[in-house]
């Protein structure tokens, strides 16, 4: 009886976490390059009341096992691409493919797919930075410093090479190429908020796309990657989670009713 | 009289166990690849009741049979198909038809043990190996499956894995003659008994789908109502036995 109470309580708890995850997805439906999360459930230990016993055709072929509920085993991120939105802003970049931009924060390099970049003027140096002011890194892990005239005429091609027009209208190569890295297991990345990810032992080290074989990501200038959250999907998941929560609470009620009957045996 | 008390009590204990099973099913209503448990109930062995004080071996001494309660005799998993949930993730796989993915789990004596699962939510680890979300290796025909750093992964209906058009390995999907010999271990894993006969996999693999739990909430609600009412009836029977006993003990003596 107590088992039933605990199993159903764990069911409610797991669904609560599920709803937390869904609401975070819904809250980030307009966050640039946000990647949706999904809860994965697994069943818990089984208690063996009596073991299976196969003795020459005689004996029990199956064991008597009662489970102990459920838990959330993982929260997986879906790195599927979000829709692209055309912004016409030359400093807005979207990545098509599996790559990430590298930005330098005070705590070290972090990775992001949010390409809504800006320029900042620090002590006369014009730098390409994120909305939070972190410098974007180019190949060779250098910050991208541009001449003042470049800002109005900046062009970034599909590979990330930055060119601009000088005062005479001549196209000049800035010498910078935006660094794009990829991870063997992006699901292992640690989301830090502010659209930034950090590496973990599970994600593997970042690999520069420049130095590896295989398909490369494409950079699109004048576009932003939207969140990959689909409101309809999340609403359906929300309804299912709510009903699952409800049936688990009904199980608790039933178990409680039974307990109260047991208590009424002795009058 | 006392016999009746024990019989009602065993009925209550039985229904408690049924409730435990239902609660576990209900808790796992969102668990990928979960198979609901069903209890089979068996009455205690019948016993022949004889009149006493008669000639012991005479056949017409028998009053009849009676059984003094019931208990759960088996808990079997219902392996019917769960619903398919489209996720569009390349490493989410569902099995259509019978069969299980084989995964490698650290075994007892430092060795490795093959276990089975219907949960096809897989991912890659930092070495590019295909693993479950708990980090257990998914097995192919040649052992662990190692995929490249990047590249399109395509898995066909037979379980052949291709990356950028290049054949990598074929998933080890196994089926069993008698699924009653599978034992649940938790973590969505099943263990096969040594005597379980493997048969070739005849179903299909669906990429970009997951198999949901096959728990049906309506069915479980009905189970719960049944269990509750049966429990209540047993409790009432118990109370009536008790009242009868009380009469016998406190009123008969008063005369």
From TrEMBL, chain A:
Record has Mitochondrion as a keyword: no
Domain (Flagellar hook protein FlgE/F/G-like D1) ranges: 94-164
Q: Where in the cell is it found?
A: Bacterial flagellum basal body
Q: Which UniProt keywords apply?
A: Bacterial flagellum, Cell projection, Cilium, Flagellum
Domain Flagellar basal body rod protein N-terminal span(s) in chain numbering: 5-35
Domain Flagellar basal-body/hook protein C-terminal per the UniProt entry, residue ranges: 221-265
Mitochondrion found in the keyword field: no
PROSITE patterns listed in its UniProt record:
FLAGELLA_BB_ROD
Q: Which domain of life is it from?
A: Bacteria
Q: Which family does it belong to?
A: Belongs to the flagella basal body rod proteins family.
Q: Which PANTHER family match?
A: FLAGELLAR BASAL-BODY ROD PROTEIN FLGG, FLAGELLAR PROTEIN
Summary of subunit composition and partner proteins:
The basal body constitutes a major portion of the flagellar organelle and consists of four rings (L,P,S, and M) mounted on a central rod. The rod consists of about 26 subunits of FlgG in the distal portion, and FlgB, FlgC and FlgF are thought to build up the proximal portion of the rod with about 6 subunits each.
Know the name of this protein?
Flagellar basal-body rod protein FlgG
Automatic annotation (TrEMBL), chain B:
- Where it mainly occurs, coarsely classed, is other
- Specify the signal sequence span: none
Q: Sorted alphabetically, which PROSITE patterns does this protein's record hold?
A: FLAGELLA_BB_ROD (PS00588)
List the coiled-coil residues: none
**Which family is annotated?**
Belongs to the flagella basal body rod proteins family.
Origin organism of this chain? Anaerocellum danielii
Q: Does the keyword Cytoplasm apply?
A: no
The gene designation is: flgF
Family annotation (InterPro entries): Flag_bb_rod_N, Flagellar_basal_body_rod_CS, Flagellar_FlgE/F/G, Flg_bb/hook_C_dom, FlgE/F/G-like, FlgF, LlgE_F_G-like_D1
Q: Which SUPFAM superfamilies match?
A: Flagellar hook protein flgE
The cross-references to PANTHER family, in alphabetical order and at most eight, read: FLAGELLAR BASAL-BODY ROD PROTEIN FLGG (PTHR30435:SF19), FLAGELLAR PROTEIN (PTHR30435)
| Residues covered by the Flagellar basal body rod protein N-terminal domain | 5-35
Compartment(s) of residence: Bacterial flagellum basal body
Q: Which residues form the Flagellar basal-body/hook protein C-terminal domain?
A: 207-249
Keyword annotations for this protein?
A: Bacterial flagellum, Cell projection, Cilium, Flagellum
- The name under which this protein is listed is Flagellar basal-body rod protein FlgF
Domain of life here? Bacteria
The residues covered by the Flagellar hook protein FlgE/F/G-like D1 domain are 94-162
